[in-house]
């Protein structure tokens, strides 16, 4: 175990952003992002399901809360880091990653910019990573427990936790917090990681993604081919678009990013739609296993190993089927 004299922390307690790639940044756009289209979120909108009032806790680098596409979408937040002199009420994003994730989940319909998968969902912003994308297990564990206990102004509760972060350490306190959330009927959605070697015979693990209780998300490109960087292991649950994903970014801008970090919020947004749809149909609150079961029904196998794709690609209009074998990823 290495020890960092500057921070006084062992390296094993550190958690970082899942590595991601900035493809481009642009000042303006007006589109439904291709990833949101690929998971068939617009078909749910047409049926009247937009994730209304479903609260998603985004545990990340914070959020630009006054971004034109995110105004009115933020229901609360907390800063667990030392950024902004440790002010707990300042959870602004000084990295960009968290704002991008938030846009994919819940960017609003405002006839400009982008639209998230669940444009009427609400976001609880829990900043646990600094400007450099670094954090520690203690703060992430605290953020999960904060999300479990949080109540909104009208009694709202967190239904989904979205985490596009990870580290190599299997930490008992982090695992226990994840289990607590699931026991409270909160779906915990995590990025699989970007250490993949395009070989399903070898496993790569990033925590908390590799815990069996979470919904672990791998990445495919916009042609629905497995991303070469996506981790493979026997805990992968689903895959979603994670390459060249356009979403909200700092300074009212938009960015195209790649990584399993970008796949994860597609699943978080999809779950918000499914919660609204099925709780309306059953006229009651569903348990975490019940909602997970509905998610898995909305997957299509792309023909890859279970360790690569889990149950398959999220397709909100579908019931589980098997498609033709994949073409090689030429990226």
Briefly summarize what is shown.
The protein has 331 residues and is an alpha/beta fold. It is built from 8 helices and 20 strands.
Give an overview of the whole structure.
By secondary structure, the protein is of the alpha/beta class. It has a single domain (20-322), classed as Peptidase S8/S53 domain (Rossmann fold, 3-Layer(aba) Sandwich). The chain is 25% helix and 25% strand. The protein has helices at 34-38, 41-46, 97-106, 137-149, 172-183, 260-282, 288-297, 306-309, and strands spanning 3-4, 9-10, 14-17, 21-26, 30-31, 55-60, 74-79, 113-114, 122-127, 134-136, 158-163, 165-166, 187-191, 215-220, 236-241, 245-249, 253-258, 299-301, 313-314, 321-322. It has a 7-stranded parallel beta sheet, with helices on both faces. α3 packs parallel to α6 and α6 (260-282) crosses α7. Belongs to the peptidase S8 family. The active site is at residues 60, 97, 261. Keywords: Hydrolase, Protease, Serine protease. This is S8 family peptidase.
Provide the β-strand percentage band.
15-25%
* H-E order: EEEEEHHEEHEEEHEEHEEEEEHHEHEE
Number of domains: 1
CATH class: Alpha Beta
CATH topology: Rossmann fold
| Number of continuous helical runs | 8
**Which regions are unreliable across 5 or more consecutive residues at pLDDT < 50?**
1-12, 320-331
Helix content bin: 25-40%
Structural class: alpha/beta
**What's the total number of strands?**
20
Distance between the termini: 36 Å
Structural shape: globular
Strand order of the largest sheet: 7-9-6-11-13-14-15
CATH architectural grouping? 3-Layer(aba) Sandwich
Average pLDDT works out at 91
Question: Radius of gyration in whole Å, from Cα?
Answer: 18 Å
Pfam families: Peptidase_S8 (PF00082)
Family: Belongs to the peptidase S8 family.
InterPro entries: Peptidase_S8/S53_dom, Peptidase_S8/S53_dom_sf, Peptidase_S8/S53_subtilisin, Peptidase_S8_Asp-AS, Peptidase_S8_His-AS, Peptidase_S8_Ser-AS, Peptidase_S8_subtilisin-rel, Subtilisin_Carlsberg-like
Organism: Bacillus songklensis
